[in-house]
Amino acid sequence: MSKNALSLRLRDAWRVLQGKPIKYTSSLGGLKGNAQTSNWILSKADELFIHGQIETISKSKQPIIVIGGKDSRLLYAVVAWKDKSQVLDIVIDQASNFNHGGNVFALPFIENDESIRLHNVVDLSGLKFCEKSPPGLVILNQELPAPMLEEILEHAKNAGCESFLGWGYSTQAHAIMQVVHKHLTVESSDNLWRIEFSKPEKLDPNESTSRSPCPQLRVISDDREGLVSIVIPAYESRPYIQEAFDDIALQTYKNWELLVVEDAAPNSIVDLVVAFQQKVPHNRVVFHRKEHNSGASSTRNVAMKMAQGQYISFLDSDDRWLPDHLSRKVNLLSQSRADIVYSGVDMFDSDSGRSEFIWGPNSEELDHFPNSLFIRNFIQPSGVLIRQSVVEDVGLFDESIFLVEDYDYWLRSVRQGKIFVYDPKVTTRYRKNHASASTTGRMVLCYDGVARVAFRNGDLLKDVEFRKHVLTKHLVTAAFGHLGYAQSSHNRCSPKIGYDLLKLACSIDETKWDAKRWAHRAWLAMNSGTIPAVRGIFRKQYRTVRHIPVDLNSLCKAA
Predict the structure, then answer these.
(1) Residue span of the structural domain in which 13 resides
(2) pLDDT tens per residue across span 127-141
(3) Is residue 223 part of a domain?
(4) Residue that terminates a domain, selected from 185, 218, 251
(5) Is the dihedral of CA 508, 512, 513, 518 positive or negative?
(6) 200 class by beta-carbon count within 10 Å (0-12 exposed, 13-18 middle, 19+ buried)
(7) Which residues make Cβ contacts (< 8 Å) with residue 111, sequence separation at least 6?
(8) Which residues neighbour 394 within 8 Å (Cβ) at sequence distance 6 or greater?
(9) Of the candidates 218, 240, 259, which is a domain's last residue?
(10) What CATH number is given to the structural domain containing 289?
């Protein structure tokens, strides 16, 4: 352990002796050697989660038991937040690996505290709890095999324990999660889970979601095999999300869980989630409300971190599914080597419900996939089902990307060698012409995003002429949009950005789409202050170039 890390440990130990909460050690994620806790992250949400559980138990003065010494940060938290007279039993087995501070028996806050009792056992198998003095809270501060965890949980429940808290609430701990979710009521934070044995709670629309910013979960025992995690990002979705819920309830494929994350909308939909939860008591339903609005990428990521399924399915809150949507997608993935299945979507008018057109790939684009994906994004998230392994390899959505985060994700999946399969049946409906639909100004930003994402992944295109043709077309189109529309807080159009995009196009091939000449015109207009006068010329070019088709058969020589 470095001198700096040791100094922070000692400062926290002194704070604990003074009855204050830990302050410094939660920032030591980068420790080296034996002091590192692998992937055991203790976030601020985890700290609040632990504090909420200890605060509740401390009111009743019931004993607290900590099993294992995996991470001293958790022990610091328990000692700092428990009642001073409350008994704390720390059970350490000889095989445990105690990190963040060395030997648990040498921690400075233990030596002169009579309320803290240490127990050194050979191993934890067969560990039982005294039923005459049942613990209020048991905290598992150690990695255990799933069968041993199941045995300890059963002993704790039979002994009258109220709550059981442990590490490892993530998609990587599937065996542990299967054991945990055999119990009716579970709460979670970023990396911690808690079972409540004696006082099951339900989501209450009139109360906050939990004592901390963490979502409360109602779960059942479900095998991960074949389980679909449905991810719904929600913002001002009250007018439409009930239809999405109805479509989920009508799915012929029943092995699913629902993860609804609300992006700090002014009017919460928690009451609608509660009502739907009661309608489908045999499925796991999770609702989480973010404290700050941060966009669709962040919202989807929050849900994906909580997903437990073998598959992940995306459904925007204003979109619709046919009853056989999940069954078709799961069958296509389970019967093939593919990682991602997608289909076209039915674009329908929000007011009339009338279908307008199908958005999806044509036969030529299917023949030249994935090169064709560089021309336009014909994969819409609500029509997609992916394996959990895609998330493990590709990661989450890039939260720095605006509007086209899904396009970036598909190209990153291509880079990772993921296999796509197309479902020819349209089972998804995409809502158009409602209040939050994209306007012309926002479409400029879509083209901007597409151009930047395509440029970032241009090395995937092996045919040089095709790469130059497509990338410069995207960059020039986005540039014309920025130069052709007046700047506002809504569309974020900027002549300077337009000029920079034209220069970027010139760096690829200044002859394509006449990029050099238009860059010179943009520079003259900007320096002479005549952008408003010539904006119509750039707008006309924007409308023209973006509609010029790309001949895939002649350009995709290396398809």
Answers:
(1) 3-218
(2) 777 666 788 899 988
(3) no
(4) 218
(5) positive
(6) exposed
(7) none
(8) 409, 412, 413, 416, 418
(9) 218
(10) 3.90.550.10
Residue 198 belongs to a domain with what CATH number? 3.40.50.150
Residues 467, 404 share a domain: no
CA distances from 412 to 383, 393, 395, 408, 546 (A): 18, 10, 9, 6, 24
E-only strand ranges, 114-263? 116-121, 137-140, 163-167, 185-188, 192-196, 216-218, 228-234, 256-262
Question: Which of these, 145, 68, 120, lies nearest to 99 by C-alpha position?
Answer: 68
Both 31 and 156 in one domain: the answer is: yes
Cβ atoms 97, 121 nearer than 8 A: no
More confident residue, 303 or 124: 303
Best CA proximity match to 301, nearest among 231, 209, 244:
231
Expressed in angstroms, the distance from the first to the final Cα of the chain is 54
Residue 462: other Cβ atoms inside 10 A: 11
Beta carbons within 10 angstroms of residue 82's beta carbon: 21
Pairing of the two strands 163-167 and 88-93: unpaired
User: Tens digit of pLDDT for each residue in 288-307?
Assistant: 998 888 889 999 999 999 99
Per residue in 145-167, pLDDT tens? Answer: 888 888 888 888 888 888 898 87
- C-alpha–C-alpha distance, residues 200 and 167, integer Å: 21
Amino acid letter for position 464: V
Is 454 strand, coil or helix?
helix
